[in-house]
Design brief:
alpha/beta; TIM Barrel; 12 helices; binds 1,3-dihydroxyacetonephosphate
C-alpha cells in the first residue's frame, strides 16, 4: 500500500522505534526491500535521490514501477515513496510524478530562505496528502574525495522549521553519508537531546545510517529519532556478494551468466541488510 510517511512515523515516535528509509537504484533493489518489509510485517520508506531518479529514467518511471510492484507482489504493509534530499524543483517534479513523500533539503540556504521555501511546500504537500521532510544543519559526506564532517543543527532553527508544520525533520547531529572516517567523533547526543526537547512530538530523521554502531542507533531512537536512512550499506553488501559470485567463476558455469542468476546473490545480500536494520530499528511487526 503506497501511503504518506506521516502515520507510520507518528506511530514510530510514540512507540519508540524507527522506520528505515532504504534507497533504491533499480528493480532488483526495490523488489528486495519490498519483499523484506512484507516478510517482516514492517512499514518501509523507499528513498530516491535525484541522481537515482535520473538513472531510472525519471521520477514517473520510478513511481509507476513502485506502484505496479506493490500490486504485483501483493505488498500490504505501508510503503512510502520518498524523494531524498530534494531540490526545490525536484520536489515539484516528484509531487507531479506521484510520490507519496518528499524531502526538501534547504539546509544549504540561509535559514530565512529555507523557512520560506519549506513553508510553501508544507502548504502544497498538505493539499495533496504527502508527507514532507525538512533539513536543518547540513549532513556531511564525501565530496570530491574529501569527507566533510557533519554539522550540528541549531536547536532554535530546528524549532522554527518544525513549527511550519513539516511531517519530519532531519537535523544534523554529526552524522555523515557514506562510510564514517576512522577519526569520527560519533553522534552528538547533546545536540539531539536539545533538538528533541525543542520540537516535541515531531519525528526526527537520522541520515547516514551506514556504519553507525548499534548502541548509538538505539540511543538516537530513545532520544526521538523515528526514521533512519540507509543507502551505502546495501550497495556495499550487493557489490560484495556479486564480486564473490564472479570470483568463484559461477557466471561461467551453466547459465550462471543469466542476469536473474548473476544478480541473485546481491539481491539476497540487500535483503539480509534490510532485515538486520529493521530488527535493529525495532520496526518488525509494526505494519
Ligand atoms: P548512507 O549512505 O550513509 O547510509 O546514508 C543514506 C542517507 O542518509 C540517504 O539520505
Amino acid at each position: 500500500m503506497l501511503v504518506s510517511a506521516k502515520e507510520m512515523l507518528q506511530k514510530a515516535k510514540a512507540g519508540r522505534y524507527a522506520v528505515g528509509q532504504f534507497n533504491i537504484n533499480n528493480l532488483e533493489w526495490t523488489k528486495a526491500i519490498l519483499q523484506t518489509a512484507q516478510e517482516l510485517n514492517s512499514p518501509v520508506i523507499l528513498g530516491v535521490s535525484e541522481g537515482a531518479g535520473k538513472y531510472m529514467c525519471g521520477f514517473k518511471t520510478v513511481a509507476d514501477m513502485v506502484k505496479a510492484m506493490i500490486d504485483g507482489l501483493g505488498i500490504t504493509v505501508p510503503v512510502a515513496l520518498h524523494l531524498d534530499h530534494g531540490t526545490y524543483e525536484g520536489c515539484y517534479r516528484c509531487i507531479e510524478a506521484g510520490f507519496s513523500s518528499i524531502m526538501f533539503d534547504g539546509s544549504h540556504y540561509p535559514i530565512a530562505e529555507n523557512v520560506e521555501k519549506t513553508k510553501e511546500l508544507v502548504r502544497v504537500c498538505a493539499e495533496k496528502g504527502l508527507s514532507l521532510e525538512a533539513e536543518v544543519g547540513a549532513i556531511g559526506g564525501e565530496e570530491d574525495g574529501v569527507i566533510g564532517m557533519g554539522e550540528c543543527a541549531d536547536p532554535n532553527e530546528c524549532k522554527q522549521i518544525a513549527d511550519l508544520g513539516v511531517t519530519m525533520l532531519a537535523a544534523g547531529i554529526g552524522n555523515i553519508h557514506g562510510k564514517y572516517p576512522e577519526n569520527w567523533q560519533g553522534l552528538s547526543f547533546e545536540t539531539l537531546a536539545a533538538v528533541s526537547e525543542k520540537v516535541g512530538s515531531m519525528p526526527l530523521v537520522l541520515h547516514g545510517g551506514t556504519g553507525i554502531p548499534a548502541d548509538q542507533i538505539k540511543k538516537a531512537i530513545s532520544l526521538g529519532v523515528s526514521k533512519i536512512n540507509v543507502n551505502t550499506e546495501c550497495q556495499l553488501a550487493f557489490a560484495d556478494a556479486t564480486r564473490k559470485y564472479i570470483e568463484a567463476g559461477k557466471d561461467l558455469q551453466g547459465k550462471g551468466f543469466d542476469p536473474r542468476k548473476l544478480l541473485a546473490p546481491g539481491v539476497e545480500a540487500i535483503k539480509a541488510t534490510v532485515k538486520e536494520k529493521m530488527e535493529l530499528f525495532g520496526s518488525v511487526g509494526k505494519a
